[in-house]
Amino acid sequence: MPIIINLDVMMAKRKMSLNELSEKINLTLSNLSNLKTGKAKAIRFSTLDAICKALDCQPGDILEFKE
Length: 67
Known about the structure:
GO terms for molecular function: DNA binding. The protein contains five helices and two strands, in the order E-H-H-H-H-H-E. The protein has helices at about 5-15, 20-25, 30-35, 45-55, 60; strands spanning about 5, 65.
């Protein structure tokens, strides 16, 4: 898949755990884990918005396109 999800990188930069982010954005651990590991097939804009607010970043910091 050409879309790379760098959620783990941003979480490490912000020193935030998966549990902490899950609580902040009100998303289940399993859904957040699927997104973090790249197993998710889609992401809602509302979820992306919440993640960006919680991690104080831009969508481009989390999503990357590689051929």
